[in-house]
User: Fold this.
Amino acid sequence: MKLERAAGILLHPTSLPSGKLDRDAYGFVDWLAAAGQSWWQMLPLGPPDEFNSPYRSPSAFAASAQLLAKPGARVTAAEIEDFVARHPYWTGSWARFAGEGAIADQVRFEREWGALRAYAAKRGVRLIGDLPIYVSDAGADVAGWPELFAHGEVAGAPPDALNKNGQLWGNPLYDWPAHRATGYRWWRERFRRTFELVDLCRIDHFRGFVSYWAVPERDKTALHGRWRPGPGADLFHAVKAELGDLPLIAEDLGRITPPVYRLRDELGLPGMAVLLWAFRRSVRNPHRPENHVRNEVVYSSIHDTDTAVGWFDALGAKQRAATGLDPSEPNWGLIEMAYASPASLAIVPAQDVLGLGSDSRMNRPGHPRGNWEWRLDPGQLTPALAARLRKLARSRRR
Assistant:
């Protein structure tokens, strides 16, 4: 997919003042349009886990009923029958797992989401979703398709700048030969469901499709995992053969090897650059603006990092000076850098527009508690901020 030059904001619906698909969601769309923004990016829409993480959802297909503005709205038997007829692959396993009312909630979500998406489209705003590579170890997918999952090892990420012991996610890993034997049916249906809901989707942990970090299930950290081969291009070719061109963004962050970049480029997918990491000295650093490319998405920060202000405040005096950013508004310095980038799409988290510090970050990798809780205050995204973004977007042809 080739991206047009544009800008957008990263804000999960749970970070709206109400956390629902209600007037706050429509008001945010209006604010995006006023700010000259073409995209609303969000995190995964599935039901969150017990820590409120949307990346360990009990379903790869169902949407979160917690987002409903009208959870008690009437649903008819005919509506349920129609929804199941259009989603025969996964609704049975979800109903068995989630119980009475599970499919009615999906009908309600389809109503509310469809109305919001149509409203956004009329305002010139499209939606970017997020597809986690893994699912919950205690969810409907493992219960419904146990033959598709491996045993003895769990998912994680190796040690890196974010965590010296790596990240022990604990999700079940896939039995890739079993998936291949089905023609990747589960994945084809998963992507089909994803593209019903969004216009473009960031695919989480893209490198895991080339090789993934497998951790012995009894380990307490991810330090002693090992790399195992993923399905590579076969999976994506199978999906593309059925669904056509795939509107995806490859999350190619972390320990990336040449085969990962080759797969990304073979598939024609845009990758990601994060400006918080642009100030590392290596001239080959892909996050430095001079190394950005057109088919790419540039971010000031992301949900797994500190906010722009929090990051800047944690730097030493010499490091701050070396960035060249205005210490009174380092967040706007990064926003301007993102908008000036040759990357086609520039995405800025709402926290960076507001200049918020570390206490407003969305997630701290490796720390399961206290994440995914940040919310906007009513009226916090002001017309003045919208005007400032719109002016900047116009000046940079976004």
Observations:
- The first strand starts at residue 6 and ends at 10.
- The chain has a mean pLDDT of 96.
- The CA atoms of residues 57 and 336 lie 35 Å apart.
- Residues 102-122 form the longest helix (21 residues).
